[in-house]
Amino acid sequence: MTSPQAGPAAVLCGLGAVLPPRAVPNAELCAELDTNDDWIRTRTGILERRIAAPGVSTEDLAAAAATQAVESSGISDVDAVVLATTTPDHLMPATAPSVAARLGLTGTAAFDVAAVCTGFVYALATAAGLIATRMARTVLVVGADRMSRLPDPGDRTTRPLFADGAGAVVLRAGDTAEPGVLGPMVLGSDGTHRDLLVVPHGGHMQMQGPDLFRHAVDRMSAVTRQAVQLAGWCLTDVDRVVPHQANSRITAAVGRHLEIAADRRVQNIEYVGNTGAASIPLALAQASADGTLRPGHRVCLTAFGAGLTWGATTLTWPDLKPGRTARPRDVPGAVFDAERVDKVM
Question: Which residues does the annotation mark as catalytic?
Fold first, then answer.
């Protein structure tokens, strides 16, 4: 599926992100699992991951990132809130209305999107559609997950991968010539492979790693090509590719397929792990903060997740006003750590 280019364009105008302060290094997991640091590093690229405290909910993380994004945008009100998450706080109701209420947005349309690690791109497409059809002029898009809750605590193949965090952007109606305009969206799915990564009802995550790896590389490579072509660019025009942070080997393989060198690929999985729907906005926040991502850069966002699902879009990076760093009173124990991940400010 590709998005039509009709009606007002969706312009990214605000950005926020939060991570729990607790860093869990590989050595800590190795003491509990039948694994070692070298095994984890070489297969995932992860050195440590951020794990939220037991009292911190997906709503807490999402609300803190959303607060930053709204402040960054300079917009005092939004017309809709779209939350991408695999770990809602309840089966019912959705988490998005609670996030909206935390921001004082009672009466605002708010709903969850479930597309696992492709969720943030799906949520961007949904928000862009609301703007294109004039149902909303401003939309808050959040990706938030507590992925560390899903693996079996004793499973060495999944537990080292998954972590917690949240990121958010604000989109507003604008002109197609503006920096920050989202390009055509490309979305896809293949439910015949749903068993490659699944959490059965009442159970723990089950993953068929080798098959999932192959599909991830093939689908992310293909959808990136499609999005770039629909934007009217060539792959050589792309300054930065921001992939879902699933595994450093997947990112490297996609880079080889597309002939995109490491210095053009944004990666932060080493210190944050796989944060599900939060991974792309978290990577954007870090890259924007440390100068890896600069105004005027041509950017492609690309993702793959369970379902199977995949998606990609493009934009020219805008000059954003930074939002404040979330304080502990906003999210119990959730802040950016300057020593490991650069602050949004």
Answer: 117, 244, 274
